[in-house]
TrEMBL record:
Pfam families: HTH_5 (PF01022)
The protein's name in its UniProt record: Metalloregulator ArsR/SmtB family transcription factor
InterPro entries: ArsR-like_HTH, HTH_ArsR_DNA-bd_dom, Metal_resp_trans_reg, WH-like_DNA-bd_sf, WH_DNA-bd_sf
Taxonomic lineage from the root: Bacteria, Bacillati, Actinomycetota, Actinomycetes, Micrococcales
Domain HTH arsR-type: 15-112
Gene Ontology molecular function: any one: DNA-binding transcription factor activity
Domain of life: Bacteria
Length: 155
């Protein structure tokens, strides 16, 4: 199924669609971790075609699953295929696909660093007791307070 088709018109060529919808549709093509992995493998050799056998080895996918993901990537125009005899090879359709993967990796690195900083800061904060622990602490302090009152009254 070609999910890049909307109402019989490709959302990549339908001039009536807002650009943000076209962009969102492009990201749908990237919305599976195995498709991203395939693109990363292809991006590692941008000037060469990669045979399906090499993609199978690099991704560890079954042939049928790889075929499905490659079909989606072709439908979204992210990869191109070339057949030579019995062998089919793939490459990125545009060098900007590799750029997009690099930018996504850099952005993710920044996000994860910010999260790591937050976790480190959080690790230095004092513990906040749970409600049950707070009640237990209050209950154990009450007899001490009562004993102090009794001792003071006897004096």
């Amino acid at each position: 199924m070609d999910s890049s088709i909307h109402g019989g018109v490709s959302v990549f060529t339908d001039a009536s669609r807002p650009l943000y919808e076209v962009k969102a549709n492009l990201f749908k093509g990237l919305a599976h971790p195995l498709r991203v992995r395939v693109l990363e493998v292809l991006a590692a050799t941008p000037d060469a075609e990669t045979p399906v056998a090499a993609l199978l080895e690099a991704t560890g996918l079954e042939a049928s699953h790889l075929s499905q993901h490659l079909a989606v990537l072709r439908n979204y125009r992210l990869v191109t295929a070339e057949r030579r005899g019995n062998q089919v090879s793939y490459r990125l359709a545009y060098p900007q696909v590799a750029d997009l993967l690099r930018v996504a990796r850099a952005l993710l690195g920044e996000i994860l660093q910010a999260t790591e900083r937050q976790l480190v800061e959080q690790a230095g904060l004092p513990d906040i007791p749970t409600q049950a622990a707070a009640r237990a602490t209050d209950a154990s302090a009450a007899p001490v307070a009562e004993a102090s009152t009794v001792t003071a009254a006897r004096s």
